[in-house]
């Protein structure tokens, strides 16, 4: 199934998506993208369907061929304060605020969003596998967040964020058990499942 270019009839429709929502460490990162109506790309798809190599191959194409893009991180302390859903939406708003021209319509991956200014929006379940602009936003959000996790990996290599990008892998949880948590961990998340189990 090929992805559609737009949901609305507006010329400047932006797609937005986030990455890192389920992670135990690092920011939640969102991107917003307005593509020209004649944009075509055979490889572009939801970032989860693509190899890392393809995501990084697509990133400069998206950046060069888009009308405009925005990227925004919301970091751990704010995630812990306002919760991950609000942080995800705030990151999307932050990425949309960077767009010039201002979008006339916003399409959002998923089913939760709060209106941005007075711009009409539509939430779309699995939107990143239906619309090119959301797929493009998912790739930018994922690759920019991965870059950030690789950078902080240098500071705390024992968690292997270069590999797991802060997701709750077995290895990441084992490292938390052994070394405790860092300033990059989300304190409001259940970092270890057994924190809530009593040894009987």
Automatic annotation (TrEMBL):
It catalyses: Endonucleolytic cleavage to 5'-phosphomonoester. The keyword Cytoplasm applies. Keywords: Cytoplasm, Endonuclease, Hydrolase, Manganese, Metal-binding, Nuclease. It comes from Winogradskyella litoriviva. This is Ribonuclease HII. The keyword Disulfide bond does not apply. Transmembrane segments: none annotated. Its main location: cytoplasm. Its EC number is 3.1.26.4. It is an enzyme of class 3 (hydrolase). The lineage of its organism: Bacteria, Pseudomonadati, Bacteroidota, Flavobacteriia, Flavobacteriales. Manganese or magnesium. Binds 1 divalent metal ion per monomer in the absence of substrate. May bind a second metal ion after substrate binding. Belongs to the RNase HII family. Its cofactor is Mn(2+); Mg(2+). Endonuclease that specifically degrades the RNA of RNA-DNA hybrids. HAMAP family: RNase_HII_B. It is found in: Cytoplasm. One of its GO terms (molecular function) is RNA-DNA hybrid ribonuclease activity. InterPro entries: RNase_HII, RNase_HII/HIII, RNase_HII/HIII_dom, RNaseH-like_sf, RNaseH_sf. Pfam families: RNase_HII. Residues 11-200 form the RNase H type-2 domain. A divalent metal cation binds at residues 17-18, 109.
């Amino acid at each position: 199934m090929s992805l559609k270019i737009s949901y609305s009839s507006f010329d400047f429709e932006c797609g937005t998506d986030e990455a890192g929502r389920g992670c135990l460490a690092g920011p939640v990162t969102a991107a917003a993208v307005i593509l020209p109506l004649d944009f075509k790309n055979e490889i572009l798809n939801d970032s989860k369907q693509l190899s890392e190599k393809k995501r990084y191959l697509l990133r400069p194409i998206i950046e060069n061929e888009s009308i405009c893009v925005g990227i925004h991180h919301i970091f751990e302390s704010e995630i812990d304060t306002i919760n991950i859903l609000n942080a995800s939406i705030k990151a999307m708003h932050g990425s949309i605020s960077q767009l010039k021209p201002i979008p006339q319509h916003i399409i959002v991956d998923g089913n939760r969003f709060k209106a941005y200014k007075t711009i009409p929006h539509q939430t779309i379940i699995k939107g990143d596998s239906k619309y090119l602009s959301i797929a493009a936003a998912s790739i930018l959000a994922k690759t920019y967040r991965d870059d950030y996790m690789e950078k902080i990996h240098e500071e705390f290599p024992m968690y292997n964020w270069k590999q797991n990008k802060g997701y709750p892998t077995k290895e990441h949880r084992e490292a938390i058990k052994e070394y405790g948590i860092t300033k990059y961990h989300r304190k409001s998340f259940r970092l270890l499942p057994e924190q809530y189990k009593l040894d009987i």
